[in-house]
Design a protein that fits this description.
Length: 244
């Protein structure tokens, strides 16, 4: 399970702030965010070396796309395409709205169950793919939201139940100071299943939080992308170079 947190505030100095912790099999290889895809040179994101897709990326239009597994769907499955291609498909479009329309027209049965978060300066949408039928669009209202392996803000997600109130009560994040959100992202305490920063489980199938990211879409300046190439309680966040 990964986690995406969004603060949606259209009409303000920072219409969108998005934070994410990526949880994955520890030994699954990946590359830090860069412009990895020759056919989409304007897309910058982390690359999964096994399947070639991404879990979180942004394009030159300021559209952000991130994909998460849903409950009970960790890992690949025979006959299913990699969910890491979904953000790349979405980022061929100039707005979150256009990207959502394109994904909504696909067959959700092509992939295992997923949540796809799409956002830009105008708002955000979560797309729920349940492994059959058409994907379902869930618009996100202005405010602070959390998406995990459950529906957005779902109270049956122990992680949401514990941490969403903390994000909503925290100081709004800004490029110059997002310390409150950063502290919550780095929190590896609490009962199993509620941690936001997941400690690694025992090998051989070790699983845990492997990286973290923070993106800002200011109203009147270019986006900012910060990335921690490891668990956020110990890995430093560094600026990611974005394409022009």
């Amino acid at each position: 399970m990964c986690t995406v947190i969004l603060r949606i505030a259209p009409g303000t100095a920072i219409p969108l702030a998005l934070a994410a912790n990526r949880d994955e099999i520890i030994d699954r290889p990946w590359d830090a965010p860069a412009a990895w895809w020759a056919d989409q040179p304007d897309v910058v994101g982390g690359r999964d070396r096994l399947a070639g897709g991404t879990w979180l990326a942004i394009n030159r239009h300021g559209v952000v796309a991130g994909v998460l597994n849903r409950v009970g769907s960790l890992g690949p499955a025979a006959g299913k395409r990699s969910r890491g291609e979904l953000p790349l498909m979405a980022l061929r479009h100039p707005s979150a709205e256009a990207a959502a329309a394109a994904i909504a027209a696909t067959d959700a049965g092509v992939w295992r169950a997923y949540n796809l978060v799409l956002a830009d300066r105008d708002g955000a949408i979560c797309i729920r793919g349940l492994g059959h039928g058409r994907p379902e669009l869930i618009p996100l209202d202005p405010g602070v939201h959390m998406v995990t392996a459950h529906d957005p803000d779902a109270p049956d997600s122990p992680r949401v139940a514990r941490h969403l109130p903390r994000f909503r009560n925290a100081a709004p994040p800004a490029p110059a100071d997002w310390s409150d959100w950063r502290a919550i992202l780095a929190d590896d305490s609490g009962p199993a299943g509620t941690e936001l920063n997941v400690p690694p489980t025992p090998r051989p199938a070790a699983f845990g939080t492997v990286s973290a990211a923070m993106l800002f879409l200011p109203a009147d300046s270019p986006p900012g992308f910060l990335f921690a190439a490891g668990p956020p309680h110990r890995a430093p966040f560094r600026a990611v170079a974005l394409t022009a």
